[in-house]
Write a structure and sequence with these properties.
659 residues; four-stranded antiparallel beta sheet
């Protein structure tokens, strides 16, 4: 009888791996540092006698072996044909193309694929993002917010809507003298919030919470990685929710209550006031109270930073007021949900195989049903020699995405959506670099022809795996950390400038600081955060023609529309940067592109005025002066593992406030 235990694990041979141990990796200017800081796991996790952390060849091996082992288990458990020689050949090509950074899994995959946590507990950690609708809040109650909290604690970014507003009246809980000892686990935290919210939603019993079993701050967390924040953030969340809802007993639950609840949960999950969030709220276009809720600065800085707020736009609506708001602070974002439900690529006729789409992930490149997750994969056209080379990479990227859909999560309703839809998001980064290297028309032709190629791949591999074809397969994600590995521009966005400083922040006690200083990088204390240092990395942009300050809103929107036309059957994630003199054109731009896009957001382009901004344009002379003092780092000998990656790893997924 075949069981998972008696299926021999897929492995690449040591002979194949050996040359890669000393091979040169085509890192970008921040590539190796980003890898060690974010994705490199402790070797002792896999071998108790090993020391140090993964090098790139080891991470690639963990990812590729984990990917093909997942395929092999699926095939063997269904009694299907597995040809090991064919799998080995494909896996070797996948390894080589990953090692040479022609494609990558999402940051989630680089961090979690091939780990015991994914294989023994839940594969949810492999997915980037999710969406949950609150339309059934009256029935499901606190479970919906508990689900969101569970996802956020697994590093999954969550989009959610305000459909549950006004569906029931907030009740007074039955507070009891019973004591509930909160288990020292993700599940323990989530269950406590579930119980508390059900008290206010249904008037049910709420015990006294005992936090003594929760491990102290700084203690290591096995499995997923990281360190404990202690019990304080959870206790603060309980107190914040009690204070908020106690003042509203007898009132209908509002859209603001829904968003505040998720934002307070997000504040707890990113404990320590790091001021990062990966959540997207989607409200109604005419809900002014919701759309203006970030005007309350006290609540904004306490918890309302916890989501990017968008609304369900309607083609033909009046955008005057909303465009004025976008000029002020970059919100709200615009989501044309009906476009998502009825269109794949805009080149193709309307299609109605995805009409149950309820919303989007936080970066809005994936349209999703309620409780559905998304798996993204990144490719880099500019890192290829020609179209044929790119197609070979695209096959590997497709296989990774499709393989992830073979896995199950611990949420039954999510598994039901995932197993049916098999949605993936094959993305491209460095698009502007590819335009500049090969020509815009050439790359758009690549997109059109490659999309047809992906359809054929899905026919072939879905038949082999005996699973449904994917309902949607192509996207443009905003990227971020992953694109730093090989020095690509993120998604379809323009580079900052031809020469610029990219600043990365590290904890003062990070083991990476000393070798960075010895290598000649400029390091100084962070002006805003204690116990933090700021490292400057000088960057020269390859294939440069223009940067953000030269690109008009019209060029940016047209590129997004072309990619929605030729490539993305999910969505194109774009934050259009506009200069002050272009602000008055946003309303007209929305009217012109509302029928060619599924989502868009805007952000004013300006020099921040902050000290130590993440990006700072410099001159060629300044770049050359900085670079001559730097010796590239070939290897970090440290025991400190990467921090892991949460959510979509893209800047547009999170809001950050300098303090």
């Amino acid at each position: 009888m075949r069981t998972l235990e008696n299926i021999r694990r897929f492995r690449l041979s040591d002979t194949f791996i050996e040359p890669y141990k000393t091979a040169e990796v085509p890192w970008g200017p921040l590539g190796y540092v980003t890898f060690k800081r974010t994705y490199s796991r402790r070797l002792s996790e896999f071998d108790p006698h090993a020391t140090g952390t993964e090098e790139w060849w080891q991470t690639c091996r963990r990812v590729i072996e984990g990917m093909f082992n997942m395929q092999k288990q699926h095939v063997f458990m269904l009694g299907l044909e597995w040809i090991d020689t064919k799998a080995q050949a494909t896996a070797k090509d996948a390894y080589d193309r990953l090692f040479n950074l022609k494609w990558t899994p999402p940051g989630r995959g680089l961090w979690m694929m091939g780990t015991k946590f994914v294989e023994d507990r839940t594969a949810a950690g492999l997915f980037n993002c999710a969406f949950r609708s609150t339309r059934d809040l009256r029935i499901k109650g606190g479970y919906l917010f508990a689900w969101m909290m569970d996802a956020l604690m697994l590093g999954i970014g969550v989009g959610f809507d305000t459909e549950g507003a006004n569906s029931f009246t907030i009740s007074e809980p039955d507070f009891t003298n019973d004591t509930h000892i909160i288990d020292d686990s993700r599940e323990g935290w989530v269950n406590s919030v579930h119980m508390l919210l059900d008290g206010f939603f249904f008037g049910s019993r709420v015990p006294k919470f005992d936090y003594t079993a929760i491990r102290p701050e700084g203690a290591p967390i096995a499995g997923f990685g990281g360190t404990s924040s202690g019990y304080v953030p959870l206790k603060e969340l309980h107190n914040n929710l009690i204070e908020m809802y106690s003042a509203k007993i007898g009132d209908p639950i509002s859209s603001i209550d829904i968003v505040d609840t998720e934002n307070l949960i997000g504040r707890c999950v990113v404990a320590g006031n790091v001021r990062r969030s990966a959540a997207l709220a989607m409200g109604a276009y005419d809900d002014r109270l919701y759309l203006e809720m970030k005007n309350d600065k006290e609540k904004l800085y306490h918890h309302r930073w916890g989501s990017n707020n968008s609304f369900n736009a309607v083609v033909g609506m009046d955008y005057t007021w909303h465009a004025e708001q976008s000029q002020k602070n970059g919100e709200p974002g615009y989501i044309w949900l009906d476009n998502a439900r009825t269109r794949g690529r805009f080149k193709d006729p309307p299609r109605y195989d995805d009409v149950n789409v309820a919303g989007f992930n936080p970066c809005v490149e994936q349209q999703l049903e309620d409780a559905e997750l998304c798996c993204l994969v990144e490719t880099f056209p500019a890192k290829h020699d020609d179209y044929e080379d790119y197609l070979k990479t695209l096959k590997i990227a497709y296989l990774y995405g499709k393989t992830i859909t073979l896995s199950n999560t611990h949420w039954p309703e999510t598994n039901a959506k995932m197993l049916k839809n098999r949605r993936i998001g094959l993305s491209q980064s460095g698009v502007i670099q590819a335009f500049n290297k090969f020509g815009r028309r050439t790359i758009l032709n690549w997109c059109d022809e490659a999309y047809a190629h992906v359809q054929k791949l899905d026919d072939e591999y879905s038949n082999w795996l005996c699973i449904p074809k994917s309902v949607r397969m192509t996207s443009i994600k905003p990227s971020g950390t992953v694109s730093l590995l090989n020095g690509s521009t993120p998604g379809i966005h323009f580079p900052e400038d031809e020469y610029y400083i990219r600043r990365i922040r590290f904890s003062k006690d990070s083991q990476l600081v000393e070798p960075l200083q010895a290598a000649g990088y400029k390091i100084e204390d962070d002006e805003y955060s204690p116990n933090t240092i700021c490292v400057e990395f000088p960057v020269q942009e390859p294939y440069f023609q223009k940067g953000k300050k030269e690109a008009t809103i019209w060029e940016q929107l047209e590129i997004a529309a072309q990619y929605q036309h030729y490539w993305a059957d999910n969505s194109v994630s774009i934050t259009v940067t506009f200069k002050e003199e272009e602000g008055g054109q946003l309303k007209s731009a929305l009217e012109m592109y509302e029928s060619r896009l599924k989502a868009v957001s805007f952000l004013r382009y300006q020099l921040t005025g902050y000290k130590q901004p993440p990006y700072e344009p410099i001159t060629k002379e300044e770049y050359e002066e900085l670079i001559k003092n730097i010796t590239p780092i070939q290897r970090f000998e440290v025991e400190e593992q990467g921090s892991g990656t949460k959510f979509c790893d893209g800047d547009s997924c999170e809001i950050q406030f300098d303090q």
